[in-house]
Every structure is written in structure tokens, then in C-alpha cells.
Amino acid sequence: MKIDQASKNQPVNQIDLTPVNEKGNYATFNYPKGLRFKPTSAVTPYVEEFYFTARDIETWILAIDVVPLKGGNLMSDSDFMLRLNNPALFTENRQTVNGAVVYIMSDKSAAGFSKVAFLPHGSLIASVSLQGDDATGTQPLMTAFKTILNSWHWLK
């Protein structure tokens, strides 16, 4: 079978980044249309979970969890503290999104794109994790990540 050079250089998949709204019990946000929703059932301590995937050169995985924030502050969240206490593996970045501080941890050891955003809100915290790689580079994943964070609104 002969593969022509033009098709060989085309991206494996092109994920449709058109925003689609998802509304849960605790938050609403937009995610890329090219990601497929995988139904999950939240199990304690999670109060809400969302899971999306898309096939690419490395499968995109978007996982969003909402859990009670033990102790009422970010420093009581073990997922956040694991990353914060390992600066050799993770880089912390803080951004203000819709008037709220969002803590973003980037995995230095991951090939491609791997970031987790922590969005504290009262007695809850959401973690938005996106990882994957794209034939065109990490820009589509960064665009998707920003779309999710910029559209995030807590409902409770």
C-alpha cells in the first residue's frame, strides 16, 4: 500500500474546539465539541464528576471533579498539596478568571500537555485536569483548557 506524502503529513485527528456547554449540579462550563462525554457516577467524596476523551496522537483526557474542601482552604486539598510540595515535577501558576483566583499546576515530566486547575469556591473545590497531545502541538489543548476555565461558573 502506497501512502502519498501529502496525506502522511496531515494531522491524525483534528479535535473540534467549538465550545459546547455542560451544566452540572454545581457548575457550568464550556468544553470542546470534539471531546466525547463519558458518563460517570460520583462516588464519595466526589459530589460531581465529568469525564471526556478524544483520540489523537495521544488521547485527550479531560477530567473534572468537584469535592468538598476539607478544612475550608486550598491547603487542605491533598491533590493540590501533592503538586505544590513537588516543585521538581510541577510548576504552579496563578490566574484570575472571572474574578476568582485559579491555581494551575503543570506537569514538567509529561510529554505533550498536562495541566490541572484548582478552583476553590466556599466549601467546594473543582479540579480541571486536561492531558494529551495533538499532531499540531499543544496549542489546541491550551485553547481547550482556557475555554473551560474562562467559561466556568459555580451554580451553588
Task: Tell me what you see in this structure.
The protein is built from 3 helices and 10 strands; from the N terminus they run αβββββαββββαβ. The protein is α+β, with helices and mostly antiparallel strands and 156 residues long. It has one domain: Mog1/PsbP, alpha/beta/alpha sandwich (Protein Transport Mog1p, Chain A, 3-Layer(aba) Sandwich). The strands form 2 sheets. The chain has a 7-stranded antiparallel β-sheet, sandwiched between helices.
Helicity, as a percent range? 10-25%
**How far apart, in Å, are the first and last alpha carbons?**
57 Å
Q: What is the assigned CATH homologous superfamily? A: Mog1/PsbP, alpha/beta/alpha sandwich
Low-pLDDT residue intervals, each spanning 5 or more residues: 1-11
Helical run tally: 3
Envelope shape: globular
What is the strand tally? 10
How many domain regions?
A: 1
How are the strands ordered across the major sheet?
Answer: 3-4-5-9-8-7-6
Report the sheet-strand fraction: 35-45%
Q: How can the largest sheet be summarized?
A: 7 strands, antiparallel
Rg, rounded, reads: 17 Å
Order of helices and strands: HEEEEEHEEEEHE
Topology:
Layout: H1 5-8, E1 19-23, E2 27-32, E3 36-37, E4 48-54, E5 58-68, H2 78-84, E6 90-97, E7 100-107, E8 113-121, E9 124-133, H3 139-151, E10 153-154
Antiparallel strand pairs: 1-2, 2-10, 3-4, 4-5, 5-9, 6-7, 7-8, 8-9
